[in-house]
Amino acid sequence: MKALVYLGPGKRVLEDKPMPTIHEPTDAIVKITHTTICGTDLHIMKGDVSTVTDGRTLGHEGVGVVEVVGSSVSNFRAGDKVLISCISSCGKCDYCRRGMYSHCGDGGWILGNTIDGTQAEYVRIPHADTSLYHVPDGADEEAFVMLSDILPTGFECGVLNGQIKPGDTVAIIGAGPIGLATLLTAQFYSPAEVIVVDTDSNRLEVARKFGATSLVHGNAVDEIMKLTQGKGVDVAIEAVGAPNTFDICQSIVAAGGHIANVGVHGKSVELHLEKLWSSNVTITTRLVDTVSTSMLLKTVQTGKLDPRQLITHHFTLNEIMKAYDTFGNAAQEKALKVILTN
Ligand SMILES: [Zn+2]
Ligand SMILES: [Zn+2]
What is the rounded average pLDDT of the residues 73-91? Predict the structure, then answer.
């Protein structure tokens, strides 16, 4: 079968690999019908993620059809249409019992990281009963791919951790797929104002369509303080993963506010506790647990949430090398999410 394989920093190839097989009775093999490329995959390609070794099939998002299940899988059978969660969970360990699937002792983010992932014709899914979701008949399968990672990530790490309430003033720093997924799901809580910051005008225009009330292109701190009459924002969401964007968040958070970090950071940031210690602020970090997937799935199914708007490009799995080039040049290509169909 065809698979997109990482061969060390900067090197990837679409090659033939053996079909995955059942290793444990809790496994399922899924034939991928739609997958995508994540910003995290670009980090892996740069060599930023040391747990990914040469020869690994990348990808942790996708929708497919169950090909075969292990003997102890009870919730899925061959032929079922399924959504694959980016987080695998055993459902039994201490962390899983607390709903913190991201830190599952035998799971977490392993797909396309420590085991072969979804950018292939077939994938092995461990703990299938607690790591797959049924896709209802008639569902928009491409839109459902957004439920594997970006919607739960934006919602759990940004909206829930940021404790967005009706009437709040929210700033989202970064209008990539994750920042826009945060913007979409923030609307559940009716914030009064959502200010979106990015350097890419195309992404800001998309943010406007998704309900941003103000767009900030340049001098983010000055602009936001002006927009909030010097008070700052109730919730500042970091959706980039860089020292300067974290710094914007700590400069614009109002007293009593929340800074919710969503971005993946590779470098240390300067924390200005000398300014923040008396401000009653909270700072949160989180790896997505995907505890909200079932709820989000219902909102996508009924059209309350329309993540299809995030899809800008379509390719076949055979064109995945080109798809990586397109997604890697997101600004020029005006790319958000690319869909790969098998
Ligand atoms: Zn991802
Ligand atoms: Zn577990």
Answer: 98
Average of per-residue pLDDT across 75-100: 98
Q: How far is the CA of 279 from the centre of ligand 1 (A)?
A: 33
CB neighbours of 60 closer than 8 A, spacing ≥ 6? 38, 40, 84, 86, 109, 111, 112, 113, 117, 118, 148, 149
Give the closest ligand to the alpha carbon of residue 150. Answer: 1
Mean pLDDT of 298-304: 95
Taking the CA of 147 as reference, the closest ligand is: 1
For residue 189, the domain's CATH number is 3.40.50.720
CA of 102 to the centre of ligand 2 (A): 9
Q: Separation of 149 CA from ligand 1 center, angstroms?
A: 5
Q: What is the mean pLDDT of residues 304-322?
A: 96
CATH number assigned to the domain comprising residue 84: 3.90.180.10
Is there a contact between 34 and 63 (Cβ–Cβ < 8 Å)? yes
Query: Which ligand neighbours the alpha carbon of 101 most closely?
Result: 2
Nearest to 196 by CA among 233, 153, 151, 242: 233
Residue found by looking up tokens 């957004």 in the block: 146
Residues 305 and 258 in one domain: no
Q: Specify the number of domains making up the chain.
A: 2
Span from the CA of 278 to the centroid of ligand 1 (angstroms): 35
- The pLDDT-based confidence of 316 (bands split at 50, 70, 90) is very high
pLDDT band for position 264 (cuts 50, 70, 90):
confident
Ligand 2 centroid distance, CA of 220 (Å): 41
Separation CA 48–CA 41 (nearest Å): 10
Q: Are residues 44 and 23 in the same domain?
A: yes
Tell me the HSE value of 338 on the side-chain side, using a 13 A CA sphere.
Answer: 26
Q: How far is the centre of ligand 1, averaged over its atoms, from the C-alpha of 60 (Å)?
A: 6
Using a CB cutoff of 5 Å, list residues around ligand 1, an ion.
38, 40, 149
Query: Using alpha carbons only, what angle is made at residue 102 by residues 67 and 198, rounded to the nearest 5 degrees?
Result: 100
Instruction: With a cut of 90, say whether residue 106 has pLDDT above it.
Output: yes
- With left for phi above 0 and alpha for psi between -120 and 50, is residue 22 left, alpha or beta? beta
Q: Tell me, yes or no, whether 37 and 145 share the same domain.
A: yes
Range of the domain at 141: 2-149+289-341
